[in-house]
Design a protein that fits this description.
The protein is mainly α. The protein is 66% helix and 1% strand.
């Protein structure tokens, strides 16, 4: 991330180079230090191809969480073709939504929080930035903890003498055992090292991580099919069969769950689409990385999961546990390392890059992209994610409340860019606090966007939190996005 300036297709972007000089020395005339640093500046060299975007989605999908999620859809009691249709419809919707949110960032070469300035105002953009950043911090800590737990399980399999140090009551601190701390901090440092070397290193890492998991997944699936015998594998993992129209609500629920699963990285996808060499490349990468990739990954996942029943006598949805039961030590080590690499990949792309840009946007002069990411990483330790994850009530109230803002934010941003701004953004005005700037609203905040966001988010929270509305919880993203879009459109028509 060393060179920024005009995207070749957009003459409105000022030509400038990032240097080792201070921001003030190289900052274009008219830009404000309250809104600008080199990391938030518009890109000149947008070099990511369709494959890089495809690899991004592979890293986002290929994780322990993605494996368990895909398996859970097949366990809803649907037949294989019903699950197939649900997955195709759900991921096609995600593909469409990602294309919509990608365009303003790719078109102007700016990250998600800077693109938000056009909608929420140059200072009001900190609202969507901080919300997305906080969600990422929580999930970053939880994903790191889950990956480290998998490492600890595999380590104990080979070195059972370490078992006493895995007992939090005798060797532990703040709710985590000594061995757990070692695993967590090891993963924490490895992720920080990849991130610290910048977006080019992250790109190379995800280009490798996504395909690497596929290789191991196919080998694991082949091994499990060989052990079980193809004739003993039942694709329908659920025990319930639906007839006629009974299946429709279940399929709609599955579709909604797919969209909700990707809602976080979908919202700030602009942080990555800004690197796309063209919008066409981004769309191609999304197509191969979402409908095609997700479907293939899901099919491999369900075959592997289904095979655990005849092989081990029970249904196992955790790939690390499946790998841990294999009799060959080399296979166990290889599988555990691969899934760990996969989790590092999804954690960096979904939960590290986002807060790096988001927190940098709050105080660009003081917080660089790297500092923003490290602030998020450090914060992920202090929230003790293992306690968060092990307390269903806490994780429910914390993450679901924050997550209820994602849908409304998406709805407001899309309506503003496509219907209000008509896909036109005055790039220079994203970086100025001049009262004559296009995005300087009262106090730098577009209160119409805030007024649309808050009630839509409150309604989404109610759908998630109120027990009597439990049936609507799986659709909270659609409810929030639809209401946010509707409220904002009504307010902007006045």
């Amino acid at each position: 991330m060393s060179q920024y300036s005009a995207a070749p297709h957009n003459p409105a972007i000022p030509a400038f180079e990032s240097t080792d000089a201070s921001d003030e020395a190289s900052m274009p005339a008219g830009y404000s230090e309250r809104l600008y640093n080199h990391d938030l500046a518009p890109l000149r060299n947008q070099t990511w191809s369709a494959y890089n975007i495809f690899a991004f989605w592979m890293s986002d999908v290929h994780s322990v969480g993605g494996y368990v999620f895909a398996g859970s859809l097949f366990a809803l009691g649907l037949t294989s073709w019903q699950v197939l249709i649900s997955l195709l419809v759900g991921i096609t919707i995600v593909n469409l939504l990602c294309n919509l949110i990608a365009k303003p960032s790719q078109q102007n070469g700016v990250p998600y929080p800077v693109a938000c300035r056009a909608t929420f105002g140059v200072l009001g953009a900190n609202i969507p930035a901080v919300i997305r950043g906080l969600i990422a911090v929580a999930w970053y800590g939880i994903q790191t903890y889950l990956a480290s737990s998998a490492l600890v399980i595999v380590l104990l399999k080979f070195i059972p003498q370490l078992l006493p140090y895995a007992d939090v009551h005798h060797h532990g601190m703040l709710g985590l055992s000594t061995l757990g701390w070692c695993g967590f901090m090891l993963l924490w440092v490895l992720q920080a090292l990849v991130f610290w070397h910048g977006m080019e290193t992250i790109k190379k890492f995800i280009d490798f991580a996504g395909p690497a998991v596929y290789v191991v997944m196919f080998i694991l699936a082949g091994y499990m099919v060989w052990r079980a015998g193809w004739q003993n594998i039942g694709i329908n993992l659920g025990g319930v069969k639906y007839h006629g129209l009974e299946v429709v609500p279940v399929m709609i629920t599955a579709i909604s769950l797919v969209v909700s699963y990707f809602s976080g990285p979908m919202l700030n996808f602009g942080d990555f689409s800004r690197y796309g060499k063209s919008f066409r490349s981004v769309k191609r990468g999304n197509f191969w990385g979402l409908p095609v990739n997700f479907l293939a990954f899901s099919l491999v996942t369900v075959v592997t999961t289904a095979a655990t029943l005849p092989v081990f006598g029970q249904l196992i949805t955790d790939p690390v546990e499946t790998v841990g039961r294999i009799d060959y030590p080399t296979a166990v080590i290889l599988g555990a390392l691969t899934f760990t690499i996969a989790t590092i990949g999804i954690n960096i792309v979904a939960n590290f890059v986002s807060p790096a840009f988001d927190f940098s946007n709050v105080a660009p002069r003081l917080i660089s992209w790297r500092m923003g990411g490290m602030l998020a990483a450090v914060a992920s330790i202090f929230i003790t994610p293992w306690n968060l994850f092990n307390n269903p009530a806490v994780i429910h109230y914390t993450l679901d409340v924050l997550g209820s803002f994602i849908g409304p934010l998406y709805g407001v941003l899309i309506i503003d860019f496509y219907l209000v701004k008509r896909q036109k953004i005055v790039l220079n005005d994203l970086y100025t606090v001049s009262t004559t700037g296009s995005y300087w609203y009262r106090n730098g905040v577009n209160y119409k966007a805030v007024a649309a966001l808050l009630p839509a988010a409150v309604i989404a929270v109610i759908c998630v939190m109120v027990p009597s509305l439990d049936g609507m919880a799986n659709f909270s993203w659609f409810i929030g996005a639809g209401l946010g879009a509707l409220f904002y459109r009504v307010l902007t028509l006045k």
